[in-house]
Amino acid sequence: MKKKLIILLFLLTFPSVLYVVLTTGKHRFVHLPYYGEKILADNGKDTIYHSIPSFKFVNQNGDTVSDKTYDGKIYVADYFFTTCKTICPKMTSELIRVQEKFAYTNGMVQILSHTVNPENDSVPVLKAYANMVHADQKMWNFVTGDKKQLYDVARNGYLLNALEGDGGPDDFIHSELFILVDKEKHIRGIYDGTKITEVSKLIDGIKVLMAEYLIKEEAKKRPKG
Question: Is 56 in the same domain as 157?
Fold first, then answer.
């Protein structure tokens, strides 16, 4: 209990954008927005938020990676290709920064990089790329698979809606965006992965989510009444 409270205080006091104030005995802190369409549940009270659909791909080790892999995890998703010479190297270097910042979470924070060029980016190619960039492969998956599904998840899951196409042979996605996904598969942030200041905001956003879940966990343990 004491250890968790120390971690909580650290998360909420650094950096200064994160804060907690005590009012009427309850925690109030910065909340991240929800992205995408939302609807009112049948009970007329709860809100149903957009969520990432089910998917199944193969990672750099030949293992199946699906939406279930990220149950109970916070993760950052992006789209790249190994032969990219423009924005992808910068995006990868920024994801290395995210990896280093959250290595201490023992897998609670994850990174999921989808190739947009599965014809070239086979399992061995992705493995070589992961090794080249010194990715922590317990934390970071590079995935390939069916192009139509990869592109469908990009557009309809991660809301890269500005990129129209059908996943066909002539379709190509080239996005600089990092998508922050919470434990319930809701999108909680969209950031420019080529800009240091934007990725710093992403790092802050991950800390906000971690604090949010920790506070909820502690609240469940408190006696009612």
Answer: yes
Q: What is the CATH number of the domain that holds 81?
A: 3.40.30.10
Q: How many domains does the chain have?
A: 2
Within 8 A by CB and 6+ apart from 85, the residues are none
The pLDDT profile of the chain, 225 residues, written as one tens digit per residue, is 555 544 554 554 444 334 333 223 344 456 899 999 988 888 878 888 899 999 999 999 999 999 999 999 999 999 999 999 999 999 999 999 999 999 999 999 999 999 999 999 999 999 999 999 999 999 999 999 999 999 999 999 999 876 678 788 778 888 999 999 999 999 999 999 999 999 999 999 999 999 999 988 877 777 765
**pTM for the predicted model, two decimal places:** 0.85
Evaluate whether residue 190 is within a structural domain: yes
Q: Is residue 207 assigned to a domain?
A: no
Measured distance CA(76)–CA(92) in Å, rounded = 12
